[in-house]
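Example with several molecule types.
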Amino acid sequence: MDFLTYIKDHTVVLDGGMGTLLQSAGLGAGELPERWNLSHPLVIRDIHRDYLRAGSHVINTNTFGANLLKFSHEELENIVCTAVCNARMAQECASVSHPTWVALDIGPCGKLLKPYGDLDFEDAVALFAATVRLGVKYGVDLITVETMNDSYETKAALLAVKENCSLPVIVTNAYGEDGKLMTGAKPAAMVAMLEGMGADVIGLNCSLGPRQLRGVIRELLENASVPVAVKPNAGLPRNADGKTVYDITPEEFAEELAEAVHGGVRAVGGCCGTTPEYIQRTVDKIKNITPKPIEKKAFGVVSSYTHAVRFEEDRPVLIGERINPTGKKRFKQALVEHDLDYILREGLRQQECGVQVLDVNVGLPDIDESEMLCETVCELQAILDLPLQIDTASPAAMERALRRYNGKAMINSVNGKRESMDAIFPLVKKYGGMVVALTLDEQGIPSTAEGRLEIAARILRVAESYSVDRRDIIFDPLTMTVSTDPQAANVTLEAVRRIRGELGCLTSLGVSNVSFGLPARDTVNSIFFTLALQSGLGAAIMNPYSAEMMGAYHAYRALRGYDANCADYVSFAAALPAPTAVSASSAAIASAPAAAEGTLRHAVIKGLREQAGVLTAKSLADGAEPMTLVREEIIPALDEVGRGFEEKTVYLPQLLMSAEAARAASEQIKLHLSQTKEQTAERSGAPVVIATVAGDIHDIGKNIVKLLLENYGFRVVDLGKDVAPEKIADEVVRLGAPLCGLSALMTTTVPAMEETIRLLRARAPHCRVMVGGAVLNRDYAERIGADFYGKDAMEAVRYAEQICGE
Amino acid sequence: MRTAAVSEEVERELDGALAEALPMLSYRLCYAEFALKLDGGEADMTFARAASHSLVAHLAGCTHVVAFAATLGVGLDRLIARYSRLSPTRALCLQAIGAERIEAVCEAFETDIRYASFGGRIHTRFSPGYGDLPLTFQREIFRVLDCPRRIGLTLNESLLMSPSKSVTALIGIE
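Resulting structure tokens for the full complex:
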């Protein structure tokens, strides 16, 4: 019988622990259990057979760690081949009457993925793919991906399965005591991502006993529309006379699992410490329980690597629109200069304002959008935990970014054109996602709500033909400009109402479009937003920096009774700046006792970030020359702190705080200049290139040097950490950089630094090389051929001034 | 050398960094004890042998050795990555907090081992990379302790550990 058909009406029994049994059969500490398929086939077969006789429907091959990181190609093939063979022979020998299946077992590879580890996502996919292909070659019935404690690695493994076979796949994760994976994912987030990618059964295994996992089981059941699998340990391990023993009996274990089956779990088994007896008892306890029907969930959901965001009536989803160059000069400049820091800060700032999702659009004619989009998505998900809405007109760029996205993304967008649907729906199906569907087609945007509704209905039909679930579609019936068409807002609002009411689907709008060409746009936008919310809007792409928009949102929720005790509204209001904020702070400055206080120079010396920004903006508004501010306020302040640092009267954090205050001031100057189209305050000429060398991931020193160089007006191109010598040389040549700074913390990576210098000498003889880092000193730096050793960031600045002043 | 005064602003910054860092820490540790034989220039620790004079000298007189690995988890790494984009000052403070916390975990573990060894004298911890014990010895510790599975600690190609605020070491017991 087909496994997926069987699980529809039955509770499936999985197997129990393998490692624990192998250890008691003599497997040594540190010995690779997968080799026992070849060296001790009878032991393996007996274990499989005992599980089958105990009542297991599914047995996992002994291939938990069978991957190319641990074995050669040849040995891997031998292992998988014999592992499948051992399971098949056990199946034959057990001669049980219930249906049984052999699953290829895939465990974590033992490496953390980039950026926090060193395994590239695609390399991880390739690694798992090799094992999957072998399992398929030797004829397994199912694939089990298990014990994964990182969502990104789980995604890589599932993608490898999906790209190399069409077998049913069970995915179970190892949740800790906090109810999350080791890298932070909650069960709801895993369900969103894994269901989106087409996992057939989703669940948990290992880490704890069934009792400690009750909360995780509940959360899985509340979120999953597919069968849920549960394979806990036999309780918690403890050491008894040098042996690991587990603290719950087969009887207690079986009782807990029976409870889980009552609750709706559809596949049960055991992990560490469980034996055929645990499985046998469980089978006895559950055999008379009628399987609970699997409830298909109705809510829409997206996720990040930590949490899921549900689209629910009482909490319309706010999608921040600020990562988008359209109409934003400063953002365009950041894109052209590849200034990711600026883009990431926009992301963090929107998160602080309370959006639940970030739209990411980096399309600009002069840049490689596909590359930039993928990089921005990766960088954003490295430092913040909001789900992202990937926004591009290019299906190729979309696919590249979706592949790397660690969760279930929003996809912006598809529309009623056949070409668009044929390009986007397969991506939704493969990578998962909730797709924004614009109600326009080859004929353009219908002028009536009726017309937009018809397109929406057609999009739904086509989505169904691609087996894209309707809850993964959110319609955008398009906000038109009210200043050119007085009916524009009415039509859009009616479309929102009818899509919600007649099709039962979610809607989203880009709110700000409504006010183009009108003064005081925020007022128009926020009222339109309120009307749309009242019409049943599920999400809005909006500007979270606008207090009016945020106010409308929070007030709406409070007024509709969605905000218990108006708590969200009250905390929103408490964080609002007082209406007289600017004058109040200038008053505070004016009333400060010493004359020096309240000056930009003083703010930078003291490291007062916000004050430095406010004072700069104020001075510029009052007509101060940007360059005068830099020359007479910022640089002298930095010099003073820098001198203090050199004389050891100032600690490093103080130096950095001043540098950050100076950066806040510079950011205001940049903004001012991008508005007045004047030349920038930066030094002209080629940039300084800096990097942490290959093999080294310590970048704090390099980041400090970067910050200080920028403070002093140098343009800095930061190649990041763990950068290959070739890439550094390529960039130095391409940019014609007069100076390159290299950093290394570990003795083991100094050879990489030496090689980089050698390559730079050969390919860019004009470029000076300065080095720094904990393992270096002047002698060592000379020996590896550097021009200069900087013992700290100030020395690097002094040297750069000397070189670039030449 | 003069000592710099810590300004009020720096104090505030440190308080802020502590308030953010502490909830992100997820202390995890795993260990195992092995019989030890010292043989000339080589330490035979049952699970692996190391030809290291400095390790042999350090373990002189010991009959057992405890191998352990400890980590603060990836949460702090994420926080540091976030602040290296946002505020290098905060990133620096978080780095320092992480360094202090992981050291404190190791100290606490040593104390536990000292109690558990029933008066047996224990030697201070010794990590791969100390003296002439090569960094490649990390691989042996990772193999025998199964660090990725037990505590989510992984070893990179360049023998660095991820999460970054982590320690592996050997403790000799007399």
